[in-house]
Write a structure and sequence with these properties.
Elements: E1 5-10, E2 13-18, H1 29-42, E3 50-55, H2 66-73, H3 82-92, E4 97-101, E5 104-106, H4 108-111, E6 118-122, E7 126-128, H5 142-150, H6 152-160, E8 165-166, H7 167-172, E9 178-180, H8 185-197, H9 201-211, H10 214-232, H11 235-245
Parallel strand pairs: 2-3, 3-4, 4-6, 5-7, 6-9
Antiparallel strand pairs: 1-2, 7-8
Helix pairs in contact: 1-3, 2-11, 3-10, 5-6, 5-10
The structure holds coenzyme A.
Coenzyme A binds next to helix 2 and strand 5.
Amino acid sequence: MTEHVVVEKDKGILTLTLARPDKKNALTNAMYGKLADAIEAAETDTAARVILIRGQGDMFTGGNDVGEFAAIAAGGGRGEQHVHRFLRALVECSRPLIAAVQGRAVGIGTTMLLHCDLVVLADNALLSTPFVSLALVPEAASSLLLPLRIGHGRAYEMFALGETVSAKNALDWGLANRVVPLDRLYETAGELAARLAAQPVGALAATKRLMRRADALAAQIAAESECFAERLRTAEAREAFTAFAERRPPDFMKLAS
Ligand code: COA
């Protein structure tokens, strides 16, 4: 099977590359599994001092694979859902996490950035969290973290209307550390990763622990996951996934409230 996440290690930097460009790096259960394995393993790997996440092709990721959502909505997907392990790994990760983002970062593509310690955007980056448009709810503790970061009004527009945020606004609103021309994205992220790799790993881990409330994040994720699982099985969600497969806009107004 083609590997859709490439894992590389060099000079203390563990690089995880989403590598499914023909499907806009849409994340599958197998991809979450591989990401979770790599982040978990980094905890005890002295050669993985910093983790850099990036995506191949013209965008970071189109978010969760909508076909897999549809399969769960139809009653499938009863095996282990690795997304839960991936989210736990993000919350518990003591290593610095850096993201390098070009083009679209949809859904979990944006919410995972809230768990990254440094976010570098290419100037063509566009962040969006259109959960409600898919008849779903926010995940990855983003219902807590996004309003905290950018304020309720902006977060609500992103969640409820699927508003897309430009790289410039993301920087102004504190969602990103740097915006650079596309051809300097990996260079800039790599330079930051190298600087962090040279820092004392124990002090970095302790600082990150002090800056984040892992218990609160885990509790928020648990509450979101329960609601998300319920929403996945609604008539609203079936309409959203069918519309995506049929490449047409969903018609929620035909559904009863
Ligand atoms: N799940 C499954 N397949 C996806 C996908 C996703 N999240 N995102 C993109 N793809 C697939 C498309 O179905 C298409 O497949 P095909 O070539 O077999 O038809 C391929 O990737 C290219 O996507 P396309 O829509 O043609 O590219 P685009 O540049 O016009 O648009 C997006 C890119 C990401 C804006 C658009 O694909 C999109 O809106 N995807 C869904 C995003 C989403 O709702 N994610 C879940 C959030 S919770």
